[in-house]
Amino acid sequence: MTAYLLDTNVISELTRPAPHPSVTAFFVTQDDLWLASVVVYELEFGVNLVPSGRRRDRLLLAHSRIMSVLGERVLPLSRSAAEWAARLRADARRRGRALKLADALIAGTAIANTLPVVTRDVQDFSGLGVEIINPWDYETT
After folding, report:
1. Rounded to whole angstroms, how far apart are CA atoms 102 and 94?
2. Residue range 2-17, pLDDT digits in tens
């Protein structure tokens, strides 16, 4: 059995009123799913930007349900993950590539914990030395 590190866009997709069936299938068929602490930050930041009302309430409920499934499977930013993220971002900059801090931290967490990154944003993680899985392409058969 393989463990997976979920990117923010996967959780965001699952909070949509009608999430993509392949993403839902991936989520419900895997037993060992993890989040990087920076993903929790991005999710909370996003929800806190939404004005009070029905949409925000729906997002809070969806996040609560997803987090109850994941439980405490949130990886902190360890020293090793931070060092990997710094190396990845510096290497990207030297090559003339912009690498967002959050993506570097997610990739660093993935490398430090030997986990593939599950994301729709394949291009953001390509060439960083992490295995990438696009759940939008997940075979449900």
Report:
1. 18
2. 899 999 999 999 999 9
Residue 138, CB-side half-sphere exposure with 13 Å CA sphere: 21
**pLDDT tens-digit map of 34-47:** 999 999 999 999 99
End-to-end CA distance of the chain: 19
- List Cβ neighbours of 57 (8 Å cut-off, separation of 6 or more): none
Its pTM surpasses 0.90: yes
DSSP summary character for residue 55: H
Measured distance CA(11)–CA(135) in Å, rounded:
11
All domains of the chain, ordered by start, with CATH? 4-137 (3.40.50.1010)
CA distance 103 to 7: 9
